[in-house]
Amino acid sequence: MQTTRAALFDSVSKHFLEYGLLRSPVNSALGPKTRGFSRESGQDHRNHDHRHPEHPPIRRFFHLAARQVLRQLVLALLLVCFPYGVNHALAQGPPTDEDEVIRVSTDLLLFPVRIRDKKGQAVPGLTEQDLLLKDPDQATSGLYFSPGADRVALMFALDQSGSLREVISQQQDAALALFSRFGQRSSVAVLRFSDTSSLATPFTRDLTQARAAFSFAAGFNQRTAIFDAAANAVSTFADMPRVRAERRIVVLISDGLDNRSKTSADAVIKAATEKRVSFYVIHLPLFEPRDGRLAVRRPTKGFKELAEKTGGKYFLVGDEKSALLPKQNNLTPIFQAIEEDLKSQYLLGFYIAESARDNRRHEFSLTLKPEGVEYSAGRGYSRTQKFFVHKAPDSPKQPN
Prior knowledge:
By secondary structure, the chain is an alpha/beta fold. The chain has helices at 2-18, 25-30, 57-91, 162-170, 172-180, 207-212, 226-237, 265-274, 305-308, 332-343; strands spanning 108-117, 131-134, 140-147, 151-159, 187-193, 197-204, 246-254, 277-283, 287-290, 293-296, 314-316, 345-352, 361-368, 373-376, 381-382, 384-390. It is built from ten helices and 16 strands. Helix 1 (2-18) crosses helix 3 (57-91) and helix 5 packs parallel to helix 10. The protein is globular, with a radius of gyration of 29 Å.
């Protein structure tokens, strides 16, 4: 509350300072400084400047008294406005870097892209200067481009079914090591699910809290609602401030069998795409006899697509040989692959111009200038990718 009050006082004081009604303590020590309006050269200001030596002391006294009254008036005004200021600040959620928060009115469409060279290696250090935009209709008003792993909001969605509890519990160190490799402003959360889902650890930077959430009792003989849990994970991000450079990632670990969800996979994929949430799905499979041997039991339809259609990746852990050795499952290479994949990505965004709100299709393309470099926006790799936007005045649509 003290911070809010101070900020509000500084804001009001600034406006008074601009018109010379208050004197800044710093400027007072440094001497008089012209603020607010500019003055014409050659004008005699002796009759307006109380600091001029021709003014008698009594006139200076009245000026000082007037300033003191104004200070008291400002403080009284702050006391009246103070409750509103506190409530307004609390309504905005956790503090974030002001220059990175997207204003609600900003029409910025963001999505991750993967960039590689001819050898398939990641290409670090690219900037907007390496991009060439061709937009004949002038449907865009600008670009946004930044590394994709500087700031990550990472959620682990853990299947609590009895067959997975021990494996997941053993992987907590490897999982949390993934989080620790991202920027200091990153955060981690843990959601657990069986027939229902619950947020075991809200987004935090405290690894101790997250570590404890990896230990849980097995949910025997319970149904599993994977897509309901995935929808809950996506909705959890809605409560966070929208930060432009933040990647929102869900690492979902499950056996892939959904027999409870009311939410469809397509609905989750659509919501995740709209909220810029990418799923990395780790499939710890069950096995079944097939043609006289053990085989991986096929996951529920939409399980793999949850990763492939949201900008993430799908990983199958183990094979028939590991069916009888569940303790041998080691997820460390998978977490390393997720880290490498995220660090190879950039966030690419288009600011859509107001003139494009005309219910017409507008096409534009983006090319990487460096030779031998190509990128994918989810539809294969190429040096140049084509996009379009078809935007009605009241129903924005993401480029495809």
